Amino acid sequence: MTSPRPGIDVVRARQRAREAVIELALRGCAFTAVAGLVLIIVFVFRQAWPVLADPATRNEASLRAFFATPIWQPVSDVPKYGLLPLIAGTGKEVVVAMLFAVPLAVLAAIFSAEFAPPRLREVLKPAIELLAGIPSVVLGFFALMVLATWMQTVTHSAMRLNALTAGVALGLGILPTIFTVAEDALRAVPRAYREASLGLGATPWQTAWHVALPAASAGVAAGVLLGLARAVGETMIVLMASGNAAITSTTPLDSARTLSATIAAELAEVVVGSPHYATLFFLGALLFTVTFLINIAAGAFVDRLRRRLAGA
Predict the structure, then answer these.
(1) Mean pLDDT lowest for which of 6-20, 37-51, 202-216?
(2) Please, which residues have CB within 8 angstroms of residue 209's CB and are 6 or more apart in sequence?
(3) Is the confidence at residue 306, as pLDDT, over 90?
(4) Alpha helices, H only, the chain
(5) How far apart are CA 237 and CA 138, in angstroms?
């Protein structure tokens, strides 16, 4: 009687070979993704390096020049590279976007996770998440043609395109991110927490606000910080709806210009290797650094909340 052992060994050898090839392919994909990110970072910082090291560039654009003047006017007889209007414009629009999106997204997540009937939840969550699939240029076009007119009618502002309009449109863009993460975090809260609260006599709203939301605070905070990181780097919405005026102003009813919109508007026409060119890449490096720090802070904050909720 012939032993089936040789056939089994061949099959196992083929399986190990396939698994080795799959593992190698996965390693290659992971390495390619990381290598692509590293190369992009190196390229951006290398193009921005003349601002810090090249004497000819520093005569016109340097860290001191960035904050010595409140004017951004790179194309003139005497170029001025003041970053304060760009930083102020970015800050105004991000603040408006977060004030608009965070309460709306968190309250919608609470309703979806705690109060909505299952049939309504199946419609509500995909409908909100569908906003994430709308290209930012479409949201910018909507803000430019529809939202700007409506906001001017309501606020009676002198400028149709301003930081308020761009901030609200930007809030629509980041709302799905915050909602999705917050709703998933609330749904992950153990049902025993709610049952214990209701058993002690709390109302469903008290249970949602004082039990479920604090228990899911780590996930909700992660969603808020992810939305903040996207708001800082968003380009097309603010480019189309903010008015693109580099003005240092504290009121959101004035036009504004962000760091990302400046790069998008000017990089295509700038002379390669010029101080203006290096400055735009410096703005890109600055945006990357800010976004990276926000993500690091998000991870540390969420980890701290989780340890505190776990009693560590």
Answers:
(1) 6-20
(2) 110
(3) no
(4) 5-48, 50-53, 55-58, 63-68, 84-110, 118-129, 136-142, 148-155, 163-187, 191-199, 204-207, 213-215, 217-233, 236-241, 259-266, 275-309
(5) 8
